Amino acid sequence: MIVKLGVFYIAAFLLLAAYPMMAGAWVKDRPVTPYGDYCPQCTKYGTCKTIMSHEDAKKAMLNYYDQKGLSVEMEKKEGRFIRAKVKEKNKVIDVIIFDRRTGRIRSIY
Question: Are 51 and 41 in contact (CB under 8 A)?
C-alpha cells in the first residue's frame, strides 16, 4: 500500500512539474499554417472558380502570410502545386504546398 501511494505521489509531482513546460510548448509551437487552411481567394470548401495562374497563386500566398507578419519564398512549381518556404526574419519556420486548383495550403515541414 505504501509503495502504491509513493508511486502515485511521484507521478503526480512529475506531471505537475512538467505542466508549465508542456503548456508553454503548446502555445509556442502553434502551427504557422493550420492543417487544411485555404487562401481567401477560394472558398473554404476547397474550390476555386478556375485554376489560379502561378502569379495569382504567388500573390494569394504573399497576402495570406503577410497578414501574419511572415514572408514567403517560392521554391518549386510543379503542375498545379507550388512548394514554398515560409520565413520569419530570414529563418525558415514552415514549408508548404499550395494547390492552385483548390486554394488549399498544407504544411509539409
Answer: no
Q: Taking the model in full, what pTM does it have?
A: 0.65
Range of the structural domain that residue 21 is part of: 1-30
Number of compact structural domains in the chain? 2
Distance CA 28, CA 41 (A): 29
Q: What is the pLDDT along the chain (109 residues), one digit of tens a residue?
A: 565 556 666 666 555 555 444 333 233 455 677 776 777 777 766 677 788 899 988 998 998 899 889 999 999 998 999 999 999 998 999 999 999 888 888 888 6
Pair (45, 26) in one structural domain: no
Residue 56: what are its φ and ψ, rounded to 5°?
A: -65, -40
